[in-house]
Specification:
The complex is a heterodimer. Chain A is an alpha/beta fold. In chain A, about 30% of the residues lie in helices and about 20% in strands. Chain A has one domain: 3-Layer(aba) Sandwich (Rossmann fold), CATH 3.40.50.970. Chain A contains 12 helices and 13 strands. In chain A, the strands form 3 sheets. Chain A has an 8-stranded mixed beta sheet with strand order 2-1-3-4-8-7-13-9, sandwiched between helices. In chain A, strands 10-12-11 form a 3-stranded antiparallel beta sheet. Chain B has 4 domains: about 190 residues, Pyruvate-ferredoxin oxidoreductase, PFOR, domain III (Pyruvate-ferredoxin Oxidoreductase, domain 3), CATH 3.40.920.10; about 180 residues, Rossmann fold, CATH 3.40.50.970; about 70 residues, no CATH class; about 120 residues, Rossmann fold, CATH 3.40.50.920. Chain B has 19 helices and 23 strands. Chain B is globular and about 90 Å long. The chains are: A alpha/beta, B alpha/beta. Chains A and B meet through strand 2, helix 3, helix 5, helix 10 and helix 11 of A and strand 9, helix 7, strand 11, helix 9 and helix 10 of B. Strand 2 of chain A pairs parallel with strand 17 of chain B, so a sheet runs across the interface.
């Protein structure tokens, strides 16, 4: 791969409603393996932020440790980022979000970072319903340490080492739905058409939004026996449907056949319209979503798209009833009770 | 038999069953003596249990103002059958034993050097009250009434305390006052003049409060403007965050909306608790966490990140007896080395050592300023004794003119005014502290990627050995800057010619001062140095160098502060000798006096530093 990206851009490249070009959302050059699924996800993130559009400096990107967690360096170069420690992105994101509720928080993690070392933090950030887009770049293996099976590797799946994984795999989407996450989706790094709108909807969702993105590891887990190879995923993918995400600010009028679509209005007024390909699906029913995931799994199919959406979910700030002014912008006068109040406190200890 | 006859100088111990409401009755006793102007030191010696196990409450009364635990019991109030015989045997010769005589004293209680005060507490209580739940609580008040009469405690002080405690529940106040009266009357009728111990009111010696250290730390966080607390419950630190939330709900509610100007997140574990505090501080709020030994161990990885990525964070460590789960409800100063060098790689952390509630408050506030100024973790080292027991202290003081020091932070205007390219880890001022930015500050400038991986001055990843080394050397220089900002150790030179100096810190202070006073009366002069912070300032070496022999007094087995001093300073190891107590109970002056006498009976020789570690000549 090339290590030099030309800085030249077409002079008439399009700008978004905020006046930014796509380049304003790019980051440093990737150092991941050529063909890595993660790079496609990085590109989808750039595209989603450009299209919504978000102000680049109002996005905070966070990660843990691993191949996936290196990616924040490769997108949103104008955003602050935090590459934390292994499996601990959710706690850093929680603290940061508590400090300033006005920014958009995008956390990326891997399957090792989330489903093993970070499992505790993962499930508890779901419970708290932190306003965070949580993207798992899921390749079923530990890339940086050369291809060990991860906890999301399917039983029987074979990585480059050729030994079938003997253990049960963890389905992060099913867990997330059970734990009350308000937005749960699955994507495939090879399907940008689907991934970009998923990201856009997730970024504007109030509360936790999990996107489990199957992202093949071209170096260690793209073999004929792997269930997370490009070929396998393409052969077994089943989408809940194609869908449009219409942010509040954009007036787009589209018509769909009656009965074949489901429109869900989100907190900020944005609308997700799902064109159902699986009949009878209701993405706002938790039980339904779990049934569907299990049914598809029995058929050996990987269900993608929006799996569950609770448009009424409340984020941590709403639950805690914190000030609408970001806590990091409160003044000393707002925070310090002063000498007279302290005298009163002293009085209670006499 | 010679009775102990003392005025304002004795120890009363209550032996109770935990979960029976004895704590509030016993507090009432201590508070009444405090309100008579007599210095008092209560120590709760409690089990890691909610109901049914033995718990003791020891109150030292000292007109001279000695605030350490004394050791030795002059009067025991025994209302726990499980420990009755043990409690009986532990009273000093000539002392007093008050017990519930509804049940007969066991046959093996045959001492002839005690005054036995037999009061049928259960019987008296059951005769007067019918509600079974209230009976349990009021039995405690009956013995307080009895004690008040025995010790000549001002009855009006007690009744006033009860009336104000139950101001909103007049019926309960009435029952409590009756219980008090029952105890008092019984003593008048059966044991008048039976006790040689007495409390006499003293004129007030300046303003004081009787407060626990954890409340003071919580108030410090409130006054410092901390807004985000990430925590995981662990004894003995739990009440810090609980008190923070309580005070925040009083002082931090937005008047117009009722919304909260703070966020308390009870995390899934200590790993997340400190992660939340770090994330908040990174994003420009003041974040903190509170924990104890096991939590500190778990937080080590994140402390290393905060050290290396230079993120402010305040950690309050309320130490308890280790190792491992150890004795969760007993005190020690045994996290010193763990805290000083927490995390892998070359790391070191700033520690503050408060000695009383006032200092807890001040050091908590300072910790937030220091964290922002130095962009590194600041660990406030309290302990269970300080945190959970009430201590006589000067009142907390706040100066309304005080401004927060948020350290080197660039806002949008400052970024625009920069003439050269900004780098997160560029040392432009020569003090090794760099300028940071908060997320969302500027549309085009000041963004960077915070990382625990090796980075250059612009926070980009690097494996260049020269750049890595340069960063590590700058952090070492920042440590030198930190030394200049620390509160200085407090030296007390009692005798300019003294050959011996004692070094101590935190809750060891009152016992050490008392011991040194006792030894001075015997003609042995010892100078004192109370450490307040790590890194040590130059005054520490000055003090150590001027003496021939240094006694490091602390509450852990291995003499951790002695080791820290040896590791950081250029001192001959044999010159620094350990005086330690590590049984989980607060150190006493007697323990210190005995160990010092024993140490001084031998010359200081190599390898004699800490006998408990197996260092022997």
């Amino acid at each position: 791969m090339t290590f030099v990206r030309p800085s030249f851009r077409h002079p008439s490249q399009p700008t978004n409603a905020l006046g930014y070009t796509r380049k304003d959302y790019e980051g440093a050059i990737s150092t991941l393996c050529a063909g890595c699924g993660h790079d496609s996800i990085s590109n989808a993130i750039i595209q989603a932020c450009f299209e919504i559009p978000l102000e680049p400096h109002k996005v905070v990107k966070m990660s843990g440790i691993g191949c996936s967690s290196k990616t924040p360096a490769y997108y949103l170069g104008r955003s602050h980022g935090f590459n934390s420690v292994h499996g601990r992105m959710p706690s850093i994101a929680t603290g940061a979000n508590m400090a300033n509720r006005d920014l958009v928080y995008l956390g990326v993690s891997g399957d090792g970072d989330t489903a093993s070392i970070g499992m505790g933090q993962f499930i508890h950030v779901l419970r708290r319903d932190l306003n965070l887009t949580y993207v798992v770049m899921n390749n079923g293996c530990y890339g940086l340490t050369k291809g060990q099976d991860s906890a999301t590797a399917d039983r029987g799946s074979k990585s480059k080492k050729g030994i079938p994984n003997p253990f049960e795999s963890i389905d992060l989407c099913e867990m997330a739905i059970q734990l009350g996450a308000g937005f749960v989706a699955r994507g495939f790094s090879g399907d940008k058409q689907q991934l970009v709108p998923l990201l856009k909807a997730a970024l504007l969702h109030q509360g936790i939004a999990l996107i489990d993105v199957i992202s093949p590891c071209v170096t260690f887990n793209n073999t004929s026996g792997s269930t997370k190879s490009y070929q396998y995923v393409r052969d077994h993918i089943e989408a809940t449907g194609t869908f449009d995400f219409i942010p509040l600010r954009q007036e787009i009028v589209v018509e769909y056949d009656e009965g074949a679509t489901q429109a869900v209005t989100m907190h900020d007024g944005s609308v997700i319209t799902l064109h159902k390909s699986v009949s009878g699906i209701d993405v706002t029913s938790r039980r339904h979503a779990l049934d569907l995931l299990e049914a598809e799994r029995e058929q050996g199919r990987l269900l993608t798209g929006i799996l569950f959406l609770d448009p009424e979910s409340e984020d941590t700030h709403a639950i805690l009833k914190t000030s609408l002014t970001p806590l990091n912008q409160l003044s000393r006068e707002d925070l310090c009770p002063g000498a007279a109040a302290l005298d009163e406190v002293n009085g209670h200890f006499r | 038999m010679s009775r102990i006859e003392k005025i304002n100088d004795f120890v009363v111990r209550f032996a109770n069953v935990n979960g029976t409401g004895s704590a509030s009755a016993n507090n009432l006793f201590a508070m009444a003596i405090y309100r008579m102007g007599v210095p008092v030191t209560p120590k709760n010696i409690f089990p890691s249990n909610i109901q049914g196990l033995p718990t003791w409450y020891e109150v030292r009364v000292s007109g001279r103002g000695w605030l350490a635990r004394r050791g030795g019991i002059d009067l025991t109030v025994a209302v726990n059958g499980q420990t009755l015989v043990q409690d009986y045997n532990e009273v000093l010769p000539g002392g007093y034993f008050l017990y519930d005589s509804t049940k007969r004293l066991p046959d093996d209680c045959r001492r002839d050097d005690l005054t036995i005060i037999a009061i049928p507490l259960t019987q008296l209580c059951n005769d007067a009250f019918t509600d079974p739940r209230l009976r349990q609580l009021l039995k405690n008040i009956i013995y307080i009434g009895a004690l008040a009469r025995l010790l000549a405690i001002d009855h009006a002080v007690l009744t006033a305390a009860i009336s104000s405690q139950f101001a909103k529940k007049p019926q309960l106040a009435e029952s409590n006052l009756l219980a008090l009266e029952i105890g008092s009357t019984y003593v008048r009728d059966h044991f008048d003049g039976a006790c040689g111990l007495r409390v006499e009111p003293l004129p007030a010696r300046g303003e004081t409060i009787l407060m626990d250290g954890n409340s003071a730390l919580a108030l410090g966080a409130i006054y410092a403007g901390a807004t985000v607390a990430g925590w995981y419950p662990i004894t003995p630190s739990t009440t810090i965050v609980e008190a923070f939330e309580r005070y925040a709900n009083r002082y931090r509610i937005e008047p117009e909306t009722g919304r909260k100007r703070f966020a308390v997140i009870q995390a899934e574990d200590e790993l997340a608790a400190i992660g939340i505090a770090i994330g908040a501080s990174w994003n420009g709020a003041r974040g903190f966490t509170a924990t104890s030994g096991p939590g500190l161990s778990l937080m080590a990885e994140f402390l290393g990140l905060a050290y290396y990525a230079e993120i402010p964070v305040v950690l309050m460590d309320v130490q308890r007896a280790g190792p491992s789960t150890g004795m969760p409800t007993r005190t020690q100063q045994s996290d010193i080395l763990d805290a000083a060098y927490a995390s892998h790689g070359d790391t070191r952390h700033v520690l503050l050592f408060p000695g009383d509630p006032k200092e807890c408050f001040e050091m908590a506030v300072d910790a937030f300023d220091l964290a922002d100024r130095l962009q590194t973790p600041i660990i406030v080292m309290s302990d269970l004794d300080l945190g959970m027991n009430d201590h006589l202290s000067a009142p907390l003081v706040w100066d309304d003119n005080r401004r927060y020091d948020r350290g080197k932070v660039l806002d949008a205007a400052a970024l625009d005014a920069l003439k050269t390219q900004w780098g997160r880890y560029l040392d432009v001022d020569g003090d090794a502290i760099c300028y940071r930015t908060y997320p969302g500050t500027h549309p085009g400038k000041g963004a960077y990627f915070t990382r625990g991986t090796s980075h250059n001055e612009y926070s980009a990843y690097t494996e260049d050995n020269t750049i890595y080394r340069r960063g590590m050397e700058r952090l070492a220089r920042k440590w030198e800057t930190a030394k200049r900002l620390m509160p200085a150790a407090q030296a007390t030179i009692r005798d300019a010619a003294a050959a011996i100096g004692a070094v101590f810190y935190g809750t060891t202070t009152p016992a050490a001062a008392e011991a040194i006073d006792i030894l001075a009366a015997e003609g042995l002069a010892i100078n004192m140095l109370r450490l307040k912070a790590f890194p040590f300032g130059p005054e520490v070496a000055v003090f150590i160098d001027r003496h021939e022999r240094i006694l490091v007094i602390e509450q852990n087995r291995d003499g951790q502060m002695r080791l820290l001093l040896l590791n950081e300073g250029n001192f001959p190891p044999a010159k620094l000798q350990s005086v330690v107590n590590f049984d989980g109970l607060p150190i006493t002056a007697a323990t210190i006096v005995n160990q010092i006498r024993s140490l001084l009976s031998r010359p200081a020789t190599a390898g004699d530093g800490n006998a408990n570690r197996g260092e022997r000549p």
